[in-house]
Specification:
single chain; alpha+beta; eight-stranded antiparallel sheet; two-stranded antiparallel ribbon; 2 helices; 10 strands; 18% helix; 38% strand; globular
């Protein structure tokens, strides 16, 4: 009897895991730059996933523009919630500058979760970026990424949620589950 209960429990857990994986792939894409240019830049910086292959449309991302260094030219902030580039601990945030040759990577921060807030405070002439980190067994919390003079550092400072102030570029784009955060469809 115990063996039967054990097998049923394992089958149920396996079914739940399959359902969670199916739900984890977001369907919506928000962008305001040519898709193919941005998708190629994402692959250049993060690598070509085996399942992506030649189908650039299988890469999901959310992008927004913000002038982070007050030079009058907005940078492009791209959060890439695509399975294979991340998981329950978060997904990468890429920061690009548009140049004549295409998109140049300025910073790569990972793993992070939305919301994405550009703070009113700055370091080295660059606005601070506030996001959430956690998942994969860690409690979700807001953190601030500060520019170190060359790029945004993975060395972040924790923030209290009530202190999150600035321009919200991307709202919370995930939901909590038994297995950790999952991107929404």
């Amino acid at each position: 009897m115990n063996n039967l209960v054990s097998k049923l429990t394992m089958l149920t857990l396996s079914g739940c895991l399959v359902a969670v994986c199916a739900l984890a792939q977001p369907k919506t894409i928000y962008t305001n730059t040519p898709d193919s240019l941005l998708r190629r830049a994402i692959i250049r910086e993060l690598g070509n996933l085996g399942e992506v292959g030649e189908d650039l449309n299988s890469i999901k991302f959310v992008s927004r523009r913000a002038d982070l260094n007050s030079d009058g030219r907005p940078e492009l902030l791209v959060w890439v919630p695509t399975i294979g580039y991340g998981g329950t601990s978060g997904y990468p945030l890429l920061i690009f500058r548009r140049e004549k040759q295409g998109l140049k990577l300025l910073s790569r921060i990972e793993p992070v979760w939305t919301p994405l807030v550009v703070s009113n405070s700055s370091r080295h002439g660059w606005r601070d970026i506030i996001m959430q980190v956690g998942g994969g067994g860690e409690e979700m919390r807001y953190v601030v990424f500060r520019h170190n003079g060359k790029s945004y550092s993975d060395n972040f400072g924790e923030m209290k949620a009530e202190r999150v102030r600035g321009r919200w570029l991307i709202g919370k784009d995930w939901k909590k589950s038994l297995f950790g955060p999952l991107p929404v469809k």
